[in-house]
Amino acid sequence: MKLLVPFELDEKYKRIGREILGKENILWFPESGDAEILLVRGNDFPRDRNFKFIQTLSAGTDHIDFKGIPRETIVASNAGAYSISVAEHAFALLLERCKNISTFKDETRGGVYKPKSTKLLYGKTMGVIGYGGIGSRVASIAKSFGMRVISIGRGYRDHNSDEFFGLDELDTVLKESDYILISIPLTTSTFGLIGKKQLDIVKKNCIIINIARPEIVKKQDLLEFVDKNKEASYLTDVWWGEPKLEGSDRENVVITPHIAGGLSGEVMEFSFRYAFENIKRFVDGMEPHNVVKRDETLYMNREKIGI
User: Fold this and answer.
1) Is 185 exposed, middle or buried (0-12, 13-18, 19+ CB in 10 A)?
2) Most buried of 43, 69, 191, 259 (most Cβ within 10 A)?
């Protein structure tokens, strides 16, 4: 079976594809021809033919419009490919906030030497909403800091989380957590998952970290929460309507420009290898990883896609 790659790629990524699939089995942009498999990175890809398998380069698929893709076509995401980078970024946000790094940097540069109290991670509870590749990686790091981890996950389990709950037990996780990580995919069931009702029961000095999708949280409810609870913080790599940042000008809101997945070559090399290896599983007759459940997909027409 042949793979079609309908976008331009650096030679270093092509080498990975040839290594895994063989050079005779890949049609590189701008080549065209008969192919059963398609690699995509956005929503702009050939829809005039019936591919047997579509592999996304992105971990999320909410930027892809599934209309026009035949139901019999298997679509797989690249979930897990960016877990290391995103988990590290989540902890960078958390440590920066807990230790007041930016505040101290700005003050000392201005000649102000003013010690303030900081927060401990040790002994605190990390609530992980979405225990997949990213969530489990964050849990592993949290355990190394001496934290208790409680998680909401649908399938995967390991020893890094002290307790697991179902999505119907979200309130329990929110009430018990000092720090809350949102790492769950955006689907029909998670759109607007966190709103006023949920924010009313979290600890008023909690830190919420969102490295998933902005629409999992209801924007107005979140802004009202951080305005009312100055000791709480919302740390995020995603924002509603990004790259616009309307409503983000709060001291207890910290935003990075959707770069948790990493923009470096080393991260993308890992991502392409992960995608090509999943394609190889399909070619070899094995069940691909991360097959998308069509009934749960939710299309968001985004200006900025991210990972």
Assistant:
1) buried
2) 69
Partners of 207 in the beta sheet?
A: 179, 233
Q: Count CB neighbours of 178 within 10 A.
A: 19
Distance of CA 201 to the CA centre of its chain: 25
Domain boundaries, the chain: 3-80+264-296, 83-255
Q: pLDDT for 115-168, tens place per residue?
A: 999 999 999 999 999 999 999 999 999 999 999 999 999 888 899 999 999 999
**pLDDT value of residue 169:** 97
For residues 179 and 127, what is the distance between their CA atoms, to the nearest angstrom?
6
- Name the CATH topology of 83-255: Rossmann fold (3.40.50)
Report cis status (omega within 30 of 0) of the bond before 70.
Answer: no
pLDDT score of 41 more than 70: yes
- How far the first Cα of the chain sits from its last, in Å, is 27
Q: What's the CATH fold of domain 3-80+264-296?
A: Rossmann fold (3.40.50)
Residues β-bridged to residue 129: 152, 182
CA distance 98 to 92: 10
